[in-house]
Amino acid sequence: SGVTAVKIPKINVKSVASDFEYSLSEIRIENEESFIVVALYRTPDGNLNTFFKKLSELFESIARVKPKSKVTIAGDLNIDFLIDSEKKQNLCDIVTMYGYKLNFSSPTRITAESASCIDNIMTNFIPNSKFLLEPGLSDHKALAIQISPSKQETKTKSNKKSVVKRRYNKPNLERFVSALAGEDFSNQVFSNYEDFAQNFTPIFENCFPLMPVSKKIKNENFNWITNGIRVSCETKRRLFLEQRGRGCPAVTDHYRGYC
Asked: Which region is the signal sequence (predicted)?
């Protein structure tokens, strides 16, 4: 697929259970710049001083080891951005100080009793777009950003891969046979292989040169997602939203029974 995820050993800020739990990878895309992606979590009662201290250490470590990389830090921070508070302001100050921005300010967690924005995505660049998705799996919405590749390529180019091959077509074979007919290998084959190879190899390379060839890359096939699966997913999502909004035990039981 041309995409790999690798660890960066030099970025070794230690996680702290409940206060600052994270996982970091560098995403490398073939023929593109790499991205650093961080998943971050702080429990509702996690120590804020530890969280802010560790977040600053992470920003500094990334800046030191990968100063030119685009960075995305996403997670459940349990700091509500819909309510003005000291902890919200402290987080905004730290994020801004290190050249990052918080991309969401609308409700990301909705229950029958409340709505809050405790999830967010921090970036050191401006995403092309950002949006919330309703997966129907949790009271948290899914946060997403879109990043365009730095090298703009046409759709045709993006679906092709350049490889090097020899062409054993009829014209090349005829040239090869004709060239061999003009050489006398009778003594070289049996007496001196090096002399034979020295004469044979240039003929072969000349008649069958390595040439760049565009090879079409097959797109991932999603035919396994049947219409029945799509309908079931949509029904499950609808039932989930109904039971979340109404807080009715009977509706909740119906949703769980469907799942």
From this structure: none
* Predicted TM-score (pTM) of this structure: 0.66
CATH homologous superfamily of 4-146 equals Endonuclease/exonuclease/phosphatase (3.60.10.10)
Closest to 117 (Cα-Cα) out of 86, 144, 79:
79
Total H helices, total E strands in the chain: 8, 12
Instruction: Of 165, 162, 169, 127, give the one whose Cα is nearest residue 144.
Output: 127
**Which amino acid does the sequence have at 170?**
K
CA angle (230 as vertex; 227, 235 as ends), nearest 5 = 125
| 30-63 per-position pLDDT tens digit | 777 789 999 999 999 999 999 999 999 999 999 9
All structural domains of the chain with their residue ranges: 4-146, 162-214, 227-258
Please tell me the number of Cα atoms within 13 Å of 252 on its side-chain side.
8
